[in-house]
Amino acid sequence: MTLDRGVSRWTDRRLGRIIVAIVFVVVWGLITHGTHAGSGDEPHYTMIAHSIAFDGDLDLQNNYRDATLIGGGRLLPEQHVRARGDRLYPVHDIGWPLLMAPVVRVAYPLADYLGDAIPPAALQSARLTKSLLLRHQLSLVMALLTGFLARELFLLLIGLGIARMGAFAWSLLFALTPPVLSHAFLVFTEIPSALIAIAVARRLLAGKVSRGALIALGTTAGFLLLVHARNVGLVAGLVVMAALAAPENRRWKWAGLFAVGVAATAALRTAVTFALWGTFLTTPHASLGSPEASAAAREMAVRIAGLLVDREYGLLAYAPIYALALAGWVVFLRLRFGLRAFAVLVVVVAYLLPVILPVTNVHGWTGGWSPAARFLVPIAAFAWIPIAVFWARAGAVGKAVALALVVLQISMNAYLWQHPQALWNDGDGRSAVAWAAWLPRLTK
């Protein structure tokens, strides 16, 4: 029996590495096509990472002037920074740039060197510039992280009792389907948020965690607050998961130890916020609104519907496979998974609440200039779990419906892989993909 467990673990690790490799190669192929990467918030996160990597500070005045490889040398600070005294600070949370700083420290001079070393004719033939060389390096790092995200989901599904090859196939489809595929090469906060969240959840749901590990997991989860303030609901949901996934006589102990770790990194974010802006919670970018109750109710309804079915920014416009999640939740919650299934649902709901509430999210629900369903990426893996469970437990009719959706989704993915610019929309009510034209328009 010990030998069997050893063989199984070896097989799981090998399949996990294969998942990472396949996702990396597919995303690498995708970025050889034209995309709109390097626009929106993305280059500004890279600029913060550049300042941390080369200056050791968060004053971006010299970086926007001198870091000409970012944004092709035409990047303007615009609304992404605010002046305080004689310094120019980023309004975005710094957790993700902090993690990316070592990568930028290597990739930036390498892109500069390669741009000089490669013959100009070869660069022109490959349609490359120094700026694109930098961006492609960062995109490949994001592709690798997306591969690890799929690997974590694969291991979690196995832990829930899903057959190994079924977990393998569903995890691959997850990573190669929007909205994950859409963000797999972008230096946004969504992929790292999703990776951290599912990695913490996998270990909690295993139900065997030491005291030190619980504090470490809480510290890791708390870092999500430094990655993006929008992750506050995600962190709260993981705290609840720590309690629900614990042995029955240890719920308060698990939740308490996990919360201690969360508090440590939450305190770090508070300290950074106070140092930059003189406030404890809010920043020029992450502030609270105060809408009227009636207006708030209407806006919440629009946001929920928009996140799901808007023709430009809705999840189902690009990933109808997620429609299986509804039936999947019913199956997942009714089967032998017990409180673990409820814990997964809690994480999804807890994350979504601050996103759909106008008082906690004054920026809307579309994600700005970005691919569809950007705000759903951090919980995409949690929403995918019941899909895999549904397939594993469905009867002949359920499997036939699921298979039809899988074939449809793979066909859509293949088209989007060839035409990744269709992942972006302009907010004008017209979808970049013809098949979404029949869906409602919910953008203003």
What's the count of strands?
2
Major sheet: order of its strands? Answer: 1-2
Strand content: under 5%
Query: What average pLDDT do the residues reach?
Result: 92
Q: Report low-confidence residues grouped into runs of 5 or more.
A: none
Helix/strand-derived category reads: mainly alpha
What shape does the CA trace take?
A: globular
Radius of gyration: 22 Å
Quaternary organisation of the protein chains = single chain
Q: Specify the number of helices.
A: 18
- Describe the largest sheet: 2 strands, antiparallel
Helix content: 55-70%
Secondary-structure element series: HHHEEHHHHHHHHHHHHHHH
How far is the first residue's CA from the last residue's CA? 60 Å
What does this structure look like?
The chain has 18 helices and 2 strands. It has 444 residues and is mainly alpha-helical. Helix 6 (130-159) packs antiparallel against helix 7. It is globular, with a radius of gyration of 22 Å. The mean pLDDT is 92.
What is the secondary structure topology, with strand pairs?
Layout (H helix, E strand, L loop, with lengths): L1 H29 L11 H13 L6 H6 L14 E4 L2 E4 L4 H23 L2 H6 L4 H30 L4 H12 L4 H4 L6 H16 L5 H17 L4 H13 L6 H27 L15 H17 L5 H4 L5 H11 L4 H18 L23 H14 L2 H23 L26
Antiparallel strand pairs: 1-2
Descriptive labels:
18 helices; 2 strands; two-stranded antiparallel sheet; 444 residues; mainly alpha
Question: What's this, in brief?
Answer:
The protein has 444 residues and is mostly helical. The chain contains 18 helices and two strands. A two-stranded antiparallel ribbon has the order 1-2.
